[in-house]
């Protein structure tokens, strides 16, 4: 069985919350240690006032580091959770499409250097979808993607192209055919006035997704569809099936 949409992103969020918990435990441990020292009058007398003040300063520094670490990890966890919900939203759109036309959908596909949010295979087109949960307005200036008038924190175009190239190479190794892979960046909340195309990557709001999938496009999609069970086995980890069809 394939992975669920947003699975790795939710795992990432959980990992970041665990890290925040470790920062909290560190801060509590330091606080308890300082309290124990301050209650021991002989130890306070032994280290003297300068030593005690230095200890308080160290406590404050560690507390600040722990507090900043907690805030940073919780913020990143919330971002990952929003990303996972966006992937789940796109998954529901794709599932509705799959009920209307022949289609295979794979979520959270591991590439060895990251994960592709969604891979879609139809008789008329092969797609990789990179889902984004950002809010605001998406625009294009030349060959640059802008979010609220500024470049986003990552190069989304390079990310989508890298995923498309990986899938193209993967398909060639599996079925021996050069298949054109359509790369899409799908925003679930940001306003995208119309579908854009940058360096061959289409940038769309999720409401445009059904039409783009229906249009298909690209060479040898039909050949990939004929070998869809090989692809399914590959993405779902059935190496015995792949070996048997080689």
UniProtKB/TrEMBL annotation:
Spans traversing the lipid bilayer: 20-39, 45-66
Swiss-Prot/TrEMBL keywords: Membrane, Plasmid, Transmembrane, Transmembrane helix
NERD domain residues: 82-194
Pfam families linked: NERD
Coiled coil: none
Domain of life of the organism encoding this protein: Bacteria
InterPro entries reported for this sequence: NERD
Name used for this protein in its record: Nuclease-related domain-containing protein
Organism: Thermanaerothrix solaris
Classification lineage: Bacteria, Bacillati, Chloroflexota, Anaerolineae, Anaerolineales
């Amino acid at each position: 069985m394939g992975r669920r949409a947003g699975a790795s992103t939710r795992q990432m969020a959980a990992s970041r919350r665990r890290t925040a918990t470790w920062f909290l435990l560190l801060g509590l441990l330091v606080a308890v240690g300082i309290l124990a020292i301050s209650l021991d009058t002989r130890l306070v007398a032994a280290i003297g006032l300068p030593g005690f003040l230095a200890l308080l300063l160290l406590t404050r520094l560690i507390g600040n580091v722990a507090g900043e670490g907690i805030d940073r990890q919780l913020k990143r966890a919330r971002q990952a959770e929003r990303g996972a919900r966006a992937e789940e939203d796109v998954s529901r759109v794709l599932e509705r499409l799959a009920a209307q036309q022949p289609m295979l959908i794979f979520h959270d596909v591991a590439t060895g250097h990251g994960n592709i949010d969604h891979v879609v295979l139809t008789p008329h087109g092969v797609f990789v979808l990179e889902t984004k949960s950002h809010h605001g307005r998406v625009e294009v200036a030349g060959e640059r993607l802008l979010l609220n008038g500024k470049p986003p924190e990552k190069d989304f175009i390079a990310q989508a192209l890298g995923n498309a190239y990986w899938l193209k190479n993967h398909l060639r190794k599996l079925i021996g055919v050069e298949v054109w892979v359509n790369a899409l960046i799908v925003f679930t909340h940001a306003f995208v006035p119309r579908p854009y195309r940058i360096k061959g990557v289409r940038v769309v709001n999720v409401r445009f997704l059904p039409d783009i999938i229906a249009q298909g496009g690209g060479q040898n999609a039909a050949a990939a569809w004929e070998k869809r069970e090989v692809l399914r086995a590959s993405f779902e980890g059935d190496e015995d099936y792949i070996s048997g069809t080689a």
